[in-house]
Amino acid sequence: MQLSKIIPEVDTHTHTVVSGHAWSTLTENCLAARARGMKGLCLTEHGPAIECGAPAYIPHSQRMLPETVEGIRVYKGVETNILDHAGNIDIPPEHLKFCEFAIASIHTHMFPERDKRVENTRVYLQMLQNPYIDILGHADDPSVPCDFDALADQARRYSKLLELNNNSTTAHRPGSLPSLKRYILCCKAHGQRVCVASDAHFHTMVGSVEPLMALLEELDFPQELIVNLTKERFDNYLKERNRRIQAISN
């Protein structure tokens, strides 16, 4: 099937009202996912460094949620904020360990030295070494320049993922499309696994990645590298993740 006709079965980047600046509840997001024929979503609230963000213990609190909501598998996660070039983040290890899936992102409005390419690359590489971090969020953002080849090489070395964020195709992140194309082609060249994510802040955005899927088709991106295309493939990655974390616990 053509990529442009496919909706990934799992959306790996979604927010609810708990993030402070999103507009829908978890139930609303899950109902939207079900209406699209999806099977899962990752609940990845912003950490506390974002204004009105979730508290640092949010991964611990999410354990009270059911595994499925409205027939949709809810993977408990977080989008932790990278705070500085020293690699500090706003979710401590004692809470990060409760996540099923964790994103690490730089958000431009709270990262004043974001124009430093070498330093940005270095801290992204550091994040990929953290066993609890699975993926870098929207690292294609041209306002946070970095070395895409270095990121793809490091992600492969540590069996991590890179995110392709649909907001980079929209007015939400203006001027990002050329950078996103370079990022996609870099992942393709390195055979690097990715997740295609909506970064939904409203329930109608959940699973809404059609522009990004069309771009992947245009660039002839291999379907087998898209980890969240099927729930089975995503669950297999999580098995890898569990083995990785168990290895450091023994």
Helix content: 25-40%
Specify the number of helices. Answer: 8
Element order: H for helix, E for strand: EHEHEEHEHEHEHEHH
Class per helix and strand makeup: alpha/beta
Shape: globular
User: Beta fraction of the residues?
Assistant: 15-25%
Unreliably modeled segments: none
N- to C-terminal distance: 43 Å
Task: Please describe the biggest sheet, giving its number of strands, its sense, and whether it closes into a barrel.
Answer: 8 strands, mixed
Based on CA atoms alone, the radius of gyration comes out at: 16 Å
Mean of the pLDDT scores? 96
Please tally the β strands and state the result.
8
Secondary structure elements and their pairing?
Blueprint: E1 10-14, H1 26-35, E2 40-46, H2 58-61, E3 68-69, E4 72-81, H3 93-96, E5 101-105, H4 117-129, E6 135-137, H5 148-157, E7 161-165, H6 177-190, E8 194-197, H7 210-218, H8 231-249
Parallel strand pairs: 1-2, 2-4, 4-5, 5-6, 6-7, 7-8
Antiparallel strand pairs: 3-4
